[in-house]
Amino acid sequence: MSIAENVARIREQIKQAAMAAGRDPSEIQLCAATKMNNADAVRQAIAAGVDLCGENRVQELTQKLSENAYAGAPVHFIGHLQTNKVRQVVGKVDLIQSVDRLKLLQAIQDEAQKQGIRQNILLQVNIGREDSKGGFYAEELLPLLENIGSFPNVFVCGLMAIPPICQNSGDNRKFFLEIYNLAVDITAKNSDNVSMATLSMGMSDDFADAVACGSTMIRVGTAIFGPRNYQ
Ligand SMILES: *Cc1c(COP(=O)(O)O)cnc(C)c1O
């Protein structure tokens, strides 16, 4: 199937999942996770109507920016980001979704201040408390956000999470609901400079469950572009 057909099918699946949950499908943005796909594939996805692109690797981001691959769509950074590479990402992307540790938050703050800009970010939550994954633990978020005034050059737009791989379909809903409830708790604190408008959760295999649990942004790679070639 073509990229355009895949995007159309996913849109329909988003619509079905949203309506089943009593949600307006327009509340959910489709982010094309473009890692290991070239500029031509990215352009096809944008032409097919994805809302934005998400890039994982700094080198690929830089390459595709130089090819003007994202023309017509916002681009987000969604992968692990080393602090020595923030300069190549801050100010280059509309949103950094994968802010997973204090040291990175500080590095983004410092670079954004240097550039005289405000960088939109999401805080990544390690919702399954997995050693293999980055992200803040849930209980770290409220204290961090109480202190977010110390990072005046970032704006927190919400949360991002990658739940553990679950054996049975539906088991992941507990993690998605935890994220949703965290966002509700944070919103109740009414912190300045913090929005919880964006909940980035759900990928090719589980986005319908994520939509059922309040996701506002799904990040889809394989279901749009086909399997990635790791050779
Ligand atoms: C690759 C990737 C995705 C997309 O994964 P698929 O299973 O191919 O849809 C989503 N989020 C992040 C952070 C990724 O690295």
Structure description:
This protein has helices at 3-20, 39-47, 58-66, 102-115, 138-146, 173-188, 207-212, 222-225; strands spanning 29-33, 52-55, 75-77, 95-99, 119-125, 154-161, 194-200, 217-220. The protein has an 8-stranded parallel beta sheet. The protein has 8 helices and 8 strands; from the N terminus they run αβαβαββαβαβαβαβα. The site of pyridoxal-5'-phosphate has 14 residues, from strand 8 and helix 8.
Largest sheet: 8 strands, parallel
Number of E-state strands: 8
**What is the gyration radius calculated from CA atoms?**
17 Å
Ions, cofactors and other bound molecules: pyridoxal-5'-phosphate
One letter per element, helices H and strands E, the order comes to HEHEHEEHEHEHEHEH
How are the strands of the biggest sheet laid out side by side? 7-6-5-4-3-2-1-8
